[in-house]
Amino acid sequence: MNGRTCFVRRQDMMGEWSFWANVGRLEAKGDRLRILLLGESVARGYLYDPLFNMAGALEEVLQSQLGEDNVEIIDLARTNLGYDLKELANSALLLEPDAAIIFAGNNWRAGYYYPHTYERAALDAQIRREGVPGLKRGCEERLAEQVRSGVKEIASLYQARGVPLVWMVPEFNLGDWREPVTLAPHLSPGGNQEWLTLWDGAHAALRDRDFETAARLAKQMVQLDGGTTAAGLYILAECSQQLGDLVAGRRYLELARDTTIWDCSRNISPRPYTVTQEVLREEAVRCRNEVVDVPEVFKEYLDGGIPDRRLFLDYCHLTSEGIQVAVAAAASRVLRLLGGADIHWRELVDKSVAPTREVEAEASVLAAVHNAHWGQSFEVVHHYCLKAVKLSPSVAQIMMRFLDLQTRHAPLMMCRSAEEIAMSGSELVQHYILHHNRQQLDKTLLDAVVGALEGIGINAGGQLNQLRREEHSVALRDTNLLDYYYVSSARQAQAETWLIPQLQKFNEAKNYYTAYLRESRFFFVGDANRPVRLRLTCRLPESESDEGTISVEVNGDRLGDAVISRQWSTWEIEVAGDEIRDGLNEVVIRWPTPAFPGDKLLESLIDRITDKSLPEFFCPFGEIYAFSAADAHNGSDVMQQSSPAQH
Predict the structure, then answer these.
(1) C-alpha closest to that of 267 among 498, 45, 461, 66
(2) Considering only CA atoms, which of 132, 146, 11, 115 is closest in space to residue 615?
(3) Residue 360 burial (CB count, 10 A)
(4) pLDDT digits over 128-145, tens only?
(5) Could you give the CA distance from residue 631 to residue 634 in angstroms, rounded to a whole number?
(6) What is the rounded average pLDDT of the residues 599-608?
(7) How many Å apart are CA 444 and CA 373, to the nearest integer?
(8) Averaged over 214-219, what is the pLDDT?
(9) Is 553 exposed, middle or buried (0-12, 13-18, 19+ CB in 10 A)?
(10) Within 10 A of 598 (CB to CB), how many other CB atoms are there?
């Protein structure tokens, strides 16, 4: 235009526009210093963007030091950006930057689908020698290679053009984020049973506040599982913190974060693994780039404390305070690079405008939703709900609409509450709830919403209970307890794997629920004093045992036992009306402890990995093909077997 080059959005990429800054046109470089910001959703300002984000805050800080007309930030952060960072960084040089900042590393994964025979042989040998810990070590080595190669390639591109480059090392919410419970993967013969015994003993010691015993037992758990599950490490972290050793507590939490690097069998939240952080630091310095070590900056900012909800909204996305601190550290480094004053980052923290209370309140609502949908505790979810209503009581209307939206039987975009959200003028809630939400029973989340609203005088509990009965009661229609809407509320992430769309292509052979814990939880909506009939088709997994006994509880009352085998069998369980509550009712199935297979299944892992199928890393306790709840006007507390169902 007018003989000058400009850049505009591609129409054929419209489906990805929401991942980027809401900017349709980038002009050719002018007289101002041009700084690029590249990165993932953390750099995007996830849950605040577009009303507040890192690029805007960075621009304000730099303009406060260099003058409003002397510097501009080009926001190239993209949600869900992965290793395609290299392509983006290369293309971004067309914008003629004076410097660039890259804040990435949370989406870098260590894929271990090896196409070459020699790599397959190496992986096979590693698993045979060390088991799953060997697979974990192999993933760390592969990720280190990928990070090192990526940093070197990008650094060489920018060095060739004479563009200074700043890498920001990402940090993780060590203080609050907790992985959903998993037991140990397949261990050597006898190892899994010993691990379970240690697990029970460590938790008993924790309840008695005997931290020394709990820590001793947890260390034995970690020795057995080789750091492949977070359970023992979380116990060690808690014991260390209770005993006042924050350094050890932090280290155990970092190790717990790193335990997921090998596990492709479930949905894992993005995170910067220790190997990512260490290689990024080392390689960036080796390439003579600048490094902003966000973990060290946060540690200094918190006076040595462990990073938590003060700086993080969830696993890795930053609060406005976290954004301001990270931006101050980046701005300090850029100012030094561009020949400006050498200003310590602490002096720059308050140079950007913080979001309004209304924006903070809406971001807190979204953080509550996001944390709940990633299986976090009631305490964490409730914290964000309370924070939201304290910041701006007007968000109560948004929370009530969300409560209605999640509880309706109709699809999301056919609900009046969705239309009201769309018309509300709340840009953040519209963007994240209407585009990225999935309807589910949401027991933890909606209980937290109800608690927060009741704190400001709104009786949401009664409305929620009534709405659930009107929309989902078994008195109206049979309920499939394995439907994602209901099963997701149990917060048993491994059992939901077969329902996750992005994993189904690797797991086409499995179309049933698999229990990886000693108990499985389910929910249905009932009417008090109205009997319910549960119908369960289940079996034991392949093991050395031909039969085993399960027990079934409803709302904490044991209804009876059933003997099941490795063949599918269907049982009908009549639950008397006086056992049923108005609203949510909980069913618990307790499984027998399996005969753990030990090393036998490790031999099949390499075949499934290289075939790009989901390996069975964990020993299943039971399997369910069908589970439903239906109205039963006349029934008694009996459990009976019907003819076996073969599938």
Answers:
(1) 498
(2) 132
(3) 21
(4) 788 889 889 988 998 999
(5) 9
(6) 69
(7) 9
(8) 98
(9) middle
(10) 17
Query: Which stretches of 488-610 are DSSP H helices?
Result: 501-504, 602-610
Distance CA 620, CA 635 (A): 33
Q: How many residues does the chain have?
A: 647
- A 10 A CB-CB count for 484 gives 15
Q: Which pair of tokens denotes residue 95?
A: 């914008």
User: DSSP strand E in 13-124: where?
Assistant: 25-26, 33-39, 71-77, 99-103
Cα–Cα nearest to 384, from 478, 452, 318, 308: 452
Q: Which two tokens stand for residue 122?
A: 């190496």
Residues pairing with 560 in the sheet: 552
CA distance 287 to 156: 8
Other beta carbons within 10 Å of 557:
12
* 346: nearest Cα among 291, 293, 301: 301
Check: CB of residue 520 under 8 Å from CB of residue 492. Answer: yes
Per-residue confidence at 287, pLDDT binned at 50, 70, 90? very high
Angle of CA points 218, 223, 224, to nearest 5°:
95
* % of the chain residues with pLDDT over 70: 91
Task: Please give the DSSP secondary-structure letter assigned to residue 80.
Answer: T
pLDDT for the residue numbered 9 = 77
Assess contact for 349 and 376: CB atoms under 8 A. Answer: no
User: How far does CA 576 lie from the centroid of its chain?
Assistant: 39
Tokens of 233: 């490490």
Q: Which of 641 and 572 is assigned the larger pLDDT?
A: 572
- pTM assigned to the model: 0.93
| pLDDT tier, 635 (very low <50, low <70, confident <90, very high otherwise) | very low
Cβ atoms of 435 and 50 closer than 8 Å = no
Helix, strand, coil content of the chain in percent (nearest 5): 50, 15, 35
Q: What is the reported pLDDT for 492?
A: 86
The token pair that represents 605 in the structure block: 């892992």
Task: Say if strands 290-293 and 165-169 run parallel, antiparallel, or are unpaired.
Answer: parallel
Query: Is the model more confident about 151 or about 615?
Result: 151
**SS3 label, residue 505:** coil
pLDDT at 114: 44
DSSP assignment of 403-461 equals HHHHH-SS-GGGSHHHHHHHHS--HHHHHHHHHH------HHHHHHHHHHHHTTT--HH
What angle, rounded to 10 degrees, do the helices at 294-301 and 320-337 form? 120
| pLDDT given for residue 313 in this prediction | 98
Q: What is the DSSP string of 135-151?
A: HHHHHHHHHHHHHHHHH
Average the pLDDT over 85-113 and give the result: 91
What is the rounded CA–CA span in Å between residue 627 and residue 483?
Answer: 9
Question: Which tokens in the block code for residue 301?
Answer: 């900012």
Residues 6+ apart with CB under 8 A from 356: none
The three-state (H, E, C) secondary structure of 253-270, written as one string = HHHHHHHHHHCCCCCCCC
